[in-house]
Amino acid sequence: MSQLRSRAWEIGLSLAILGVLVATPPTTAADPASKYFYDDKGQIVREEVDSTGSGRTDTWITYKDGKPVLQAVDTGKHGKPDTWYHLTPDGQVARAEKDQNLDGKPDVWTIYEKEVPVKAEQDLDFDGKPDRYIYFEKGKPVRAEESVKRDGKITLWLYYDEAGVLIRDEEDTKGIGRATVFSYYQDGKLIRREEDTKGTGRVDRWSYYDKEERLIRREVSRSGSGRPDVWAHFENGKIVKQEEDLLGRGRPNVTYFFQAGALGRREEDTQGVGRVDLIEWYEDGKPVKRQQDSRQQGKIDVVSYLRQGQIERQEVDTKYEGRYDLVRFYTNDRLVKEEYDTNGDGRPDIWAYYDEKGDKVLQEEDTEYDGKVHVRFRFEGGRVVSKEVVSARKSDGPPRLLTPKSW
Questions:
Q1: Domains of the chain by residue range
Q2: What gap in Å lies between CA 346 and CA 9, rounded to an integer?
Q3: DSSP 8-class letter at 403
Q4: Whole-angstrom distance between the N-terminal and C-terminal Cα of the chain?
Q5: pLDDT band at 284 (very low <50, low <70, confident <90, very high)
Q6: What is the structure's pLDDT at 136?
Q7: Which element (helix H / strand E) includes 134?
Q8: What is the mean pLDDT of residues 381-405?
Q9: Separation CA 142–CA 133 (nearest Å)
Q10: Residue 401: strand, helix, or coil
């Protein structure tokens, strides 16, 4: 945004320079500060004018056949001319030139008809070649073209209202011969921008700005359908919320929430039924907590805690009663242990352990619910290979099942 906005300001400045050319008609009237020079026939050939009474010449007028044909003006009091007016035989301005960088060579050229500008050219990199062309109607700029890369290829087009205020510009940012970015202005300030980011000829990103030209909303069509599937919202130029349609149904099912521009929370309706079933919390751009409604019934039943984006612990409400009775422990995102409270007394009575392949190798059970291990089962290849009864009244059953490891 800043690049194009800066360019709009630059255009305005350039038009102000042109305005000086338009608004400063040459004068040939003699005054006491004028000096005249004549040829051997007594005909005037040159005039030097001190228009301010400073004691220094600031205007040089060249005559031909007794009529002024060129007026050079030192508009910046630099001691040398920086603006030149070429005059018609009847004294009207036909063409004007201006030297903006004071290198002695003009870099703005303006053509007039009946002293009204119709076209101007500007050399923006001072290499002697025009890079911008401005077209006038009734003395007011209505359109401009610019070679942004200063290579002679026009890639920026600007349009003005009747007052000469910028209302729209179009830019070919990809060098494909047609505009891919379209910016719209109100009172000279950017209010909306449309972009064809892929160069397909179809707009796929829309940006909206407030009165201070700060971004307030952005819409994106990632699918290239021309219909938005991402909606981002900004405050004071920083993103606060982003919604995405990951299911292609025309409405968002994922929402990201930001604080000070940093991601804080993500909510997703994974099934597109209009109800959030997955919530993730972030710190420093990485998830630290994940809540899931794994049964799609409107209640969170799985909570995962993460570090550096990897799960360390997971709590599961296996009975869907609002109480987390299964706890899983992970190392490097690998399940290593499970603790299960089967009777709801607030403490585990089954402990299961897993190897590096994720296979269960040991399960311990408190069959008496007194906080002690009474039975141990050892596994190989998913099957029980041994049973050890430590001390139990109820020891004749098989290992009690835990809920599935993956949700």
A1: 1-26+108-194, 29-90
A2: 68
A3: P
A4: 44
A5: very high
A6: 95
A7: strand 132-137
A8: 77
A9: 11
A10: coil
User: Is the distance from CB of 167 to CB of 184 less than 8 angstroms?
Assistant: yes
Q: How many CA atoms lie within 13 A of 344 on its CB side?
A: 7
Task: Provide the mean pLDDT of the chain.
Answer: 89
Instruction: Label the pairing between strands 334-340 and 166-171.
Output: unpaired
CA 270 from centre of chain: 28
CA distance 49 to 33: 6
Which residue, 104, 36, 20, is CA-closest to 68?
Answer: 36
Amino acid, single-letter form, for residue 181: V
Helix count and strand count (H, E) for the chain:
1, 30
Buried b (16+ CB within 10 A) or exposed e, 3-14: ebbebbeebeeb
* Tokens encoding 217: 């909303």
What kind and span of H or E run contains 160? strand 156-160
Q: Please state, for a pLDDT cut of 90, what percent of the chain lies above it.
A: 79
3-state secondary structure of 90: coil
pLDDT of 62 reads: 96
pLDDT at 20 over 50: no
Average pLDDT over residues 61-78: 93
Q: Which two tokens stand for residue 234?
A: 């900004």
Reduce the DSSP state of residue 12 to 3 states and report it: helix
pLDDT at 28: 45
d(CA 201, CA 179): 9
pLDDT digits (tens, 9 = 90+) for 151-182: 999 999 999 998 889 999 999 999 999 999 99
**Which of these, 42, 75, 77, 81, lies nearest to 61 by C-alpha position?**
81
Q: How far apart are CA 122 and CA 101, in angstroms?
A: 12
344 phi and psi angles, rounded to 5 deg: 70, 30
Helix (H) or strand (E) holding 64: strand 59-64
Instruction: With 0.90 as the threshold, say if the pTM is over it.
Output: no
